[in-house]
Design goal:
alpha/beta, 51% helix, 24 helices, transmembrane, disordered N terminus
């Protein structure tokens, strides 16, 4: 079933309970695969070293009580009933919270932000809100954040830390999930055989898993939910059997009193064992991160009525079995498979491996999505993004990240060769992400929900105390595997921050060195410079949203000619998940009308799909044509320049694919073709014998344009027939003399290396080399 048709942006979800239940069923396979497989390794990781299973059962009952209350307070209370409400127009995750804060406090890390972006329909705030009123809760906090750049940087770093830990979890979760599932083979063979079989089998499954990523999860998505549902039914049924067969009174261990008895007896060893217990909530963040694929209600229903009770029954069943088995028959110690009846171990093993693969798939896909978000918000180098489904929203594949994750995952598997060290590493990654979410949520409560600071303090104190306790227990295992997520996060954080810092400094250089409009008027007014204009459309790529970029003057200086029509194109991201197609483009003029210089700003949200080259070109040309048709001629005067040094008036223009009442473009190879049309007015320019393409603009029936606009459209048509050329800057960024050593290292080596190995603009990737001009410039920042 198509998730896009049932997405939160589709109103049918409010009309049918069947739709909500269908989404809840589908979310089992996409969201809960990781969380559902946690019983495979929680008890084994908890009793691996710090505590032992004694005859009194105080340890096993205490651990069961801790698991029950941890599952109840963190995933159920915190995420299901509180965090899921903090969605960003239906989207969730760390960057959704950061995006909300950026919009409500104007602390965006994007340098080319415009006030016009606040008019976007998804850039909404609480109705009737007076942001500048001192009576609004959180006003003082908002004012403090806006004034202090240091606090803004710390907030960005905090969001990036959470993001980097999610990426680290993308390395560790597949390893521990598949490793734990395959560990069931230990009960069917000798220890000598097992140590030579387990690791190769795990590596083979991981290689297969990552090798199939380029097909996209939508091709196998229809089997994900049945697999996880079968797994939940399996573990809950086994749990019920173990409860009634071995210890029907195990439910008494759910009392918090057993936590007190457990900690009183084990003391420091019990505290250190919390690092294994917290693995019962691994994957909880996926409920919020994957919110964009489903709805808040569907995720709440799936967890509350399916996942949560199944997990509780599974953990109670394992505890009931272990409470009657204190001397195990093998060196397997305490694990999931010992509590599975021997007659069904092989079928359960098969289902467990499939469920582990599904859970791994979910975190890998989530890693791809969060890398794309970071790229959109200028916090990660541009990478190749492949959209694996034209129907299902958000299904992407990033080759570079995929193979990097696979190599790191294999290195962790082969390096540690057991679940003990991998679980220590995974636990620290999981709890760090949750701590970051708690910190950001406390700010959202005040700045976005406008609640009293007391609510925020109560939230961060209650949940923060629990998570800090688990965090400290995980951090103490730093030398026993917990260093892995710290090392991975540090590397990715360094890459992200250096890229963001270099991009910001480069933009500041562009702003400081942009050319004034007076220079342009002088250029056009002088006949002694020998400037000529050639046929075609020249699209100049720039990050500036106002003014004339220095790359244009550099281009004219070295090649005294430019195109018949020049478009200063800025493709930018805005801190919202999606921009509606009818709000995509901002179009305006640069200079007088007769110069045929236009500025076009294409706006995308951090979850938007960028169009391919051909479709983007057509939308770009149609947006300019629609602007020409609807624009009212004004007398240009240099005296009317605004503070940015331009006299530009930008107009919101819809993309042609969504604006059926606007200008449409038709292209053919020069042969006569008839398109079905009504009595629409059509402007046709006959091609010359040397032109292979004919372009026609179809105007709405009610369109009435003056002669100057008609001439301008005719000239745009001729230019489009002659072809388009993309003029892109090839920059060499260097730190200015006198800069600190850290800045020189970051700019001259770090940013330069990342820039040389990153991709160009997405709309220029498929542009023929003959249609691309690169202008080299040195940026001294």
């Amino acid at each position: 079933m198509d998730l896009e048709r049932l997405s939160p942006r589709n109103p049918i979800k409010k009309e049918s309970w069947w739709t909500v239940l269908t989404l809840a069923y589908q979310s089992l396979g996409v969201v809960y695969g990781d969380l559902a497989t946690s019983p495979l390794y929680v008890y084994k990781s908890t009793f691996a070293e710090d505590i032992t299973h004694s005859e009194t059962n105080e340890e096993i009952f205490g651990v069961l009580s801790l698991i029950f209350w941890t599952l109840t307070l963190i995933p159920l209370v915190k995420y299901v009933f509180i965090v899921l409400r903090a969605d960003d127009n239906g989207e969730g995750g760390t960057f959704a919270l950061y995006s909300l804060l950026c919009r409500h406090a104007r602390i965006s890390s994007l340098p080319n932000f415009q006030l016009a972006d606040e008019d976007l329909s998804e850039y909404k705030k609480t109705s009737g809100e007076n942001l500048r009123s001192l009576k609004v809760p959180g006003w003082s906090l908002k004012n403090t954040l806006e004034k202090h750049k240091f606090l803004q940087n710390m907030l960005l770093v905090l969001a990036l830390i959470g993001t980097c830990m999610v990426i680290g979890d993308g390395v560790l979760t597949p390893a521990i999930s598949v490793f734990s599932a395959v560990s069931g083979l230990e009960l069917s063979m000798s220890k000598q055989q097992h140590q030579y079989v387990e690791v190769p089998v795990v590596c083979a499954i991981l290689i297969l898993l990552f090798s199939l990523q380029h097909y996209g999860t939508h091709r196998l998505g229809f089997v994900f939910a049945p697999i996880v549902l079968a797994w939940l039914l399996c573990i809950s049924t086994i749990g019920v059997y173990n409860i009634f067969h071995w210890n029907p009174h195990v439910y008494k261990a759910l009392s918090p009193y057993y936590i007190y008895k457990f900690l009183k007896k084990t003391r420091k060893r019990g505290w250190m064992s919390l690092g294994g217990i917290l693995l019962c909530i691994t994957g909880s963040e996926a409920m919020f991160a994957d919110l964009g694929h489903f709805t808040q209600l569907s995720i709440q229903i799936a967890f509350t009525f399916a996942v949560y009770p199944s997990l509780i029954l599974a953990y109670m069943g394992q505890a009931a079995y272990l409470s009657k088995h204190h001397v195990l028959e093998s060196d397997y110690r305490i694990g999931f498979y010992v509590s599975v009846p021997e007659q069904i171990r092989w079928p359960v093993l098969a289902i467990a491996i499939l469920a582990a693969v599904v859970g791994s798939q979910a975190i890998i896909t989530g890693t791809f999505s969060i890398i794309k978000q970071c790229t959109s918000l200028g916090c990660f180098p541009k990478v190749k993004i492949v959209h694996t489904s034209s129907r299902m929203h958000g299904q992407i594949y990033i080759p570079e990240i995929n193979w990097t994750l696979m190599l790191l995952c294999l290195a962790v598997t082969v390096g540690f060769r057991d679940t003990k060290h991998i679980s220590n590493a995974s636990g620290l990654a999981v709890i760090t992400v949750m701590l970051v979410t708690t910190c950001l949520m406390s700010l959202v409560i005040v700045l976005c929900w406008h609640k009293s600071s007391l609510y925020a303090l109560a939230f961060i104190f209650f949940f923060g105390t629990i998570e800090v306790l688990y965090f400290s227990a995980s951090l103490i295992k730093f030398l026993e595997g917990a260093w892995v997520p710290v090392a991975l996060s540090f590397i990715f954080l360094l890459i992200m921050y250096v890229w963001h810092y270099g991009t910001l400094k480069r933009y500041e250089f562009d702003v400081q060195n942009k050319v004034s409009i007076n220079w342009l008027l002088t250029l056009f007014g002088s006949s002694n410079l020998g400037i000529v204009r050639v046929q075609g459309i020249g699209v100049i790529n720039t990050e500036l949203v106002s003014g004339i970029p220095a790359i244009f003057s550099h281009f004219i200086t070295n090649l005294p000619a430019f195109h018949q029509v020049v478009v200063f194109l800025c493709v930018k991201s805005v801190p919202v998940p999606h921009v509606k197609p009818e709000e995509r483009f901002l179009v305006g003029r640069v200079g007088p009308r007769e110069y045929r210089l236009y500025r076009c700003i294409a706006r995308y949200g951090y979850r938007d799909v960028h169009k391919d080259n051909v479709e983007f070109e057509n939308d770009l040309i149609c947006s300019i044509a629609e602007f020409i048709r609807s624009d009212k001629p004004l007398n240009y005067s240099p005296d009317l320049e605004n503070e940015s040094g331009t006299n530009e008036r930008l107009t919101v223009v819809a993309a042609s694919s969504s604006n059926l009442e606007g200008v449409q473009i038709f292209e053919d190879d020069g042969f006569d073709k008839q398109e079905p049309s009504s009595s629409a007015e059509v402007i046709v320019v006959a091609p010359s014998p040397r032109i292979k393409k004919r372009v026609r603009f179809v105007l709405p029936e009610s369109a009435r344009i003056d002669r100057s606009a008609e001439e301008e459209l005719t000239e745009l048509t001729e230019a489009r027939e002659a072809g388009m050329a993309f003029i892109m800057g090839h920059s060499y960024v260097r730190a200015k003399s006198g800069s600190s050593v850290m800045k020189k290292i970051a700019i001259n080596f770090g940013y330069d290396f990342l820039r040389r190995n990153s991709r160009g603009p997405c709309y220029g990737l498929s542009t023929p080399h003959a249609s691309t001009l690169e202008v080299g410039m040195v940026y001294i920042v």
